[in-house]
Amino acid sequence: MVTKTDFLNLTRRSRNQRERKDRRGLGPVEPGPPGLSEVVAHFWCISDLFYNPDLAMQKVVVTLFLPLVVAACASSANPKIPEPGVGIEQVVGPADLNYPYGPIEVKYNLGIQNNAPFPITLIRIDVATTNPAGGAYALRRDFYNFKETIPANSTRVIPFWAKAFSFGRGMRNTEPVTLRAIVYFNTPQGAYQKVFIRELSQFPQ
At 125, which CATH number? Predict the structure, then answer.
């Protein structure tokens, strides 16, 4: 059985023979298509690269470590202020609109509790639904701009409308909707953002 070492040695001997012919004045040998030994040797070299356990482990470490670095950077981006409380409720939904099928607008009340000893300003909210395979409606991934100041150590309720698609009457018209949002604030210490997820009931009030 021919081993990998045998093929590599055969390739080196073939290369050395061409170099000796060139030194004896027989002229350079035109390179032809690679022989079987060179092809197999090249393949083995590539296979070493792909199946090197050290390289594989390095890739695994990088793959596992990178999300941790990203998460750490995201969490450290916020200034050190008391975390604001955020809540949301659905005020107008498909049930209030007689379960239409098609584009609708859903009304929400966004509650902000400022726990800091200075005012903060809500400047934007990103909203989307993350319903796995249901829900009475789906929100279009979008953002809405604000300029609402919440005084120090106080609470404000801010209404807004969001564009959505209602799935009409059927088995899913009372299924809850899972909403994911990112709220952005301006504070005296810098920009602050917070992510939250809420499940909103669709049963008529």
Answer: 2.60.40.10
Q: Which two tokens stand for residue 115?
A: 């726990």
Based on the domain organization, do 196 and 103 belong to the same domain?
yes
Is residue 90 helix, strand or coil?
strand
Contact criterion met (CB below 8 Å) for 152 and 117: yes
Q: What is the pLDDT of residue 46?
A: 39
**Cα distance between residue 34 and residue 42, in whole Å:** 10
* pLDDT band of 148, cuts 50, 70, 90: very high
Shared domain for 91 and 43, answered yes or no, is no
Residue 205 included in any domain: no
For residues 102 and 100, give the distance between their C-alpha atoms in angstroms, rounded to a whole number: 6
